[in-house]
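Much of what follows relies on a compact textual record of a protein's fold. Each token is a code from a learned vocabulary of local backbone shapes. The record below shows the convention in full.
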Amino acid sequence: MEEILEILEKDGRVSPDDIAKMLKKKPQDVKAAIRKYERDGVILKYKAVINRDLVKAEPCGLRALIEVNIVPQKDVGFDRIAERIYSFPEVSSCYLISGTYDLLVIVEGKNIHAVSSFVAEKLSCLENVRRTTTHFLLKKYKEDGVILKQKEENKRIAISY
């Protein structure tokens, strides 16, 4: 992968001027390259990795990994059914995978009922979906290469009389 992309992938906040210094290139060349990557769809989005467990404003939603076994369609394989699945607003990611299942779908919902309703009412009843297995994420330790700091637990020793 090109060096500019590697730098931005690790830290999307690095300025083009700083990238130019790191790579010993002209700032205007780096800016032009970044604009081209954005125009060509190579760079799709800049994002922050947020440890939602440390945000006190609102409770975190629920995320589930759903393995989906599907029947591929003639002439389009898995693509058409995958497109139908990833079009649902509840779906944050969708991958074609090897193994027992064909797709790995990451779904986000307010609670377990919202996710289970999605699976029961939208996903499982799609034509060509054979079966699903849902795994709920219970705790995150690391995301996108970043280790997430855990909430400090009360470490006082319990005293009983």
